Automatic annotation (TrEMBL):
<protein>
    <recommendedName>
        <fullName>Pyridoxal phosphate homeostasis protein</fullName>
    </recommendedName>
</protein>
<feature type="domain" description="Alanine racemase N-terminal">
    <location>
        <begin position="83"/>
        <end position="234"/>
    </location>
</feature>
<feature type="modified residue" description="N6-(pyridoxal phosphate)lysine">
    <location>
        <position position="35"/>
    </location>
</feature>
<keyword id="KW-0663">Pyridoxal phosphate</keyword>
<dbReference type="InterPro" id="IPR029066">
    <property type="entry name" value="PLP-binding_barrel"/>
</dbReference>
<dbReference type="InterPro" id="IPR001608">
    <property type="entry name" value="Ala_racemase_N"/>
</dbReference>
<comment type="similarity">
    <text>Belongs to the pyridoxal phosphate-binding protein YggS/PROSC family.</text>
</comment>
<comment type="function">
    <text>Pyridoxal 5'-phosphate (PLP)-binding protein, which is involved in PLP homeostasis.</text>
</comment>
<dbReference type="GO" id="GO:0030170">
    <property type="term" value="F:pyridoxal phosphate binding"/>
</dbReference>
<dbReference type="InterPro" id="IPR011078">
    <property type="entry name" value="PyrdxlP_homeostasis"/>
</dbReference>
<dbReference type="Pfam" id="PF01168">
    <property type="entry name" value="Ala_racemase_N"/>
</dbReference>
Amino acid sequence: MTLANHLKTITARIEAACQAAQRDPKEIKLLLATKTQPVETIQAAIDLGYGLIGENRAQEVTDKFPLIHPASIAIMPYEQHFIGHLQTNKVKAIFPYVQCIQSVDRPSLAEKLHDECIKHATTREIFIQVNVSKEESKQGIDPHHLFDFLETFTNLPSLKIRGLMTIGLNADDEMAVRDGYRLLRSLRDEALLKGLLPPLATELSMGMSHDLEWAILEGATLIRVGSAVFGARPPL
Ligand SMILES: *Cc1c(COP(=O)(O)O)cnc(C)c1O
C-alpha cells in the first residue's frame, strides 16, 4: 500500500471510532510520529495534507526539521511537535524547530523551556505528560504530583499549556488501557475545575497505532500515529 492509502485507512479508523463514540471527527487531530522516517517521506505526508508532525529524539529534530520545505506547507496548518523524553541539555538545540513540546514532565524541564522563551522573547505551547500506566519505565509525572506541578506554571507565563499527554499501557487488555486514558481525562477535568489548567487547556494527547480507537472512546483530541502510517520500524 502507498502512503496515501495508509493515511486514508487511518482517517477511516478515526471516523469509525468517532461514530462509535458519538463524537465529531473534527475534534481529533492526527499527529504523524515520524521517528526513523527520512525527510522525503515526511515531506510526502505533508504534501498530502498532513501537517502535524512529531519527533521523539532531539537528534532527529535537528537533522530533519530544518530540511522540510516551507513552500509546500504555506497552505495548511503546520506544526512541529516534540513528543519524546527531553533532556534539559537538548532544549536549546530543538527550540527553534518545535512549536509545541508534548513531554513536559518535571519542573527542571519546564524552567529550562521558560528560560529559553525569555531569551528569545517568545512563547511555546506545551502538554504536560502524565504517567497513567504506573509502568516504571514510562516518562511522565506521577498523577499524584500533577496538581502541585501545575501550580508552578503560574510563574512560567511563556509556556502555554494545551492539555495533558500520556503514553498508554502497552497491552492488549482493553479495560486496562482504557482505565489509563480515562484517568487522564478525569485529571484534566478536575484540574480545569480547580483552575489549575487554563480554561482552553482541554486537549488530551493519547492513543497510537494499535489503540487509537480506545483513546478516542475515552476522549482523545490528538492521537499520535507512526507505524500504522509508515509501516513497522526497524528495531533500533
Ligand atoms: C513512536 C511514538 C508514537 C507512535 O507509535 P506507533 O505505535 O508507531 O503508532 C506515539 N507517541 C510517541 C511518544 C512515540 O514515540
